[in-house]
Amino acid sequence: IPKLIEQKIGLNYFPYYIPPSRDKFTSDYIAVSNSYKNSNDYANKHFAEIYKYMMEIDEVAEYLSTGRSGIFGDLLINIVANFEEITRGQLVSSGEKNLEFESQHKITYPLEYLSSGQKEIIPLFSFLYLSNTNRLHSLSNKNYFIIEEPEAHLFPKEIYRIINVIITIINIMSEENASKVFITTHSPFVLTALSNLTQAGC
């Protein structure tokens, strides 16, 4: 599979595969990541390894609860704002590098208690956010995002928001390193959002 990816997208691109059914990673990323250690499923194994790494970065909650300065500072703040609007809350650290979810009503929940839509969003936004920091790559890299079903378990309004975030990120990153995105979907709302953004010149 790595060779096939190289043939399709080129040697100069680094692929980030973001699979469907991401909710299982949110519920227990350690157990799920360990289950893929000896797997022949290259795509999910690749995602599991990177996601486990992301969740174990020191002060990881900071990445989805605050903006950062630098070339993508405004974009990162935008990603966080959209994350909080879609999920109706934010990620907070509960100590020992564990994350919990704090709702807009200031009630804290373990991640396994979240809705399916919220669980799907957390790994996706984590990737989108950290791909714009030096934690996952250098700005000289060309990234190729393969995102499956970004609309999973979301209402149409939230689907439009997340597609807007994805396209905004790719446009800004492309100015620096010609990054690209490939999206698979079953949703007409995703296609409509993409069509509207294209016609708007985004």
Structural features, described:
The protein is an alpha/beta fold and 202 residues long. Residues 67-72 have low confidence and may be disordered. It has 9 helices and 6 strands, in the order H-E-H-H-H-H-H-E-E-E-H-E-H-E-H. The longest helix has 22 residues, at 156-177. Helix 6 (73-87) packs antiparallel against helix 7 (116-130) and helix 8 (156-177) crosses helix 9. Helix content is 51%, strand content 17%.
Short description:
The protein is an alpha/beta fold. It is 51% helix and 17% strand.
> Strand portion, in percent?
15-25%
- Evaluate the radius of gyration: 16 Å
Q: What's the average pLDDT?
A: 76
Annotation, overall tally of beta strands: 6
Topology diagram in text:
Layout: H1 2-9, E1 13-18, H2 23-27, H3 29-35, H4 42-55, H5 61-65, H6 73-87, E2 89-95, E3 98-103, E4 108-110, H7 116-130, E5 142-148, H8 156-177, E6 180-184, H9 188-199
Parallel strand pairs: 1-5, 5-6
Antiparallel strand pairs: 2-3, 3-4
Helix pairs in contact: 3-4, 6-7, 6-8, 8-9
